[in-house]
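INFO  loader      accepted 1 record
INFO  loader      residues=175
INFO  predictor   begin
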Amino acid sequence: MLINYLREGIGTLIYLIPIAFIVFIIFTGGKFLTKSTIEFKPLSMLCEFAWILVVITILKITGIIGGDFSTTAIVNGRVNYSFALFGQEGLSMATLLNIALFTPFGFFSSIVFKKLKNKWIYGILIGLIFSGTIEFLQIFTGRFVQLNDILMNTAGTFLGYEIWAILLKLNLKSK
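INFO  predictor   done
INFO  writer      dumping tokens
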């Protein structure tokens, strides 16, 4: 089952590469138009593209992109939500998938946003804000909103941040 979800997620990621590339070109063009000096850093640009691809993939998988937004559920009082932590299922497949989904987000966010370099709290906050926004928007798509998802997504973001921080320390020690 886990393999099927991962295969589906990777398929979505691959499917979204052209869309992410278009967004990246627009983003990069805007950056070049607003800066007086133009720097061409291929590795940095590749990480920016990967970050955009990861964000678009997360938004697609969570139903924000392509979701059927309406206020019907809110008006009728039928919002599906849960504030229970780990519920009856405990540490489930969905919990692990939430962590796995947001780990690349935390990793690439650390590279793209330079201010995260030495501030681990920012690594947590960016995951918390992004995940909280997604869960809030899911209210309008009729999807199930869970506090547990926000916590696991934030944990995944922090895990990605920590992986980046460890790799950075190893790279500095080797120099």
